[in-house]
From TrEMBL:
InterPro entries: 4_helix_cytokine-like_core (IPR009079), Interferon_alpha/beta/delta (IPR000471). GO terms for molecular function: cytokine activity; cytokine receptor binding. It comes from the Eukaryota. Its main location: secreted. This is Interferon a3-like. It is found in: Secreted. GO terms for cellular component: extracellular space. The keyword Disulfide bond applies. Keywords: Antiviral defense, Cytokine, Disulfide bond, Secreted, Signal. It comes from Oncorhynchus tshawytscha (Chinook salmon).
Length: 169
């Protein structure tokens, strides 16, 4: 009984160490690369970013408040990317973006999200302000303009998160 208990314990410790290390490795070796890639695809998939204002204020304070807290940075990054993947859901018939670049953009973003998942406990809930912001942005009418606004806001967030990459490891 004692032996089984200790083995289970060692096994659990190894598992938890491994997931933490996978996460660090991902951030160190891949995060910045993928971030650069989806930012460039987002630019290339359509024309110029719209000058129209989004119907909701960018949650600038959330980003400013982070300072140098590494864990918080990773959590905010994870939640924001999750919300962005949810934004790009639904009827996209109105947009004339490059389909292949759009698909690549979404696939790479999804890959980033899946890998960051191992860094963040499911108990970490997104900030209410962040959720509220994305909820408002998501009340879109699926028109070409609405999608362009979403593209603009997405770029703003992903640029913000790109700046964090040096802080996350
Ligand atoms: C749809 O949303 C866009 C962006 O917010 C807005 O410019 C446009 O007027 C809306 N169109 C309709 C039909 O509501």
């Amino acid at each position: 009984m004692y032996t089984i208990g200790s083995w289970t314990c060692i096994f659990l410790i190894i598992c938890s160490m491994q997931s933490v290390c996978n996460c660090c490795d991902w951030i160190r070796h891949h995060y910045g690369h993928l971030s650069a890639e989806y930012l460039s695809l987002l630019d290339q998939m359509g024309g110029d970013i719209t000058e129209q204002e989004a119907p909701v204020f960018f949650p600038e304070l959330l980003y400013r408040r982070i300072d140098d807290a590494k864990v918080k940075t990773i959590i905010l990054t994870f939640h924001t990317i999750y919300q962005i993947t949810k934004l790009f859901d639904g009827n996209m018939k109105a947009v004339i973006w490059d389909k292949k670049k759009l698909d690549d953009f979404l696939n790479i973003l999804e890959r980033q999200f899946e890998n960051l998942k191992s860094c963040v406990s499911p108990a970490e809930k997104p900030e209410r302000r962040l959720k509220r912001y994305f909820k408002k942005l998501n009340r879109k009418n699926y028109s070409a303009q609405a999608w362009e606004l979403i593209r603009k806001e997405t770029k703003h967030h992903l640029q913000r998160l790109d700046i964090f990459k040096a802080k996350m490891h």
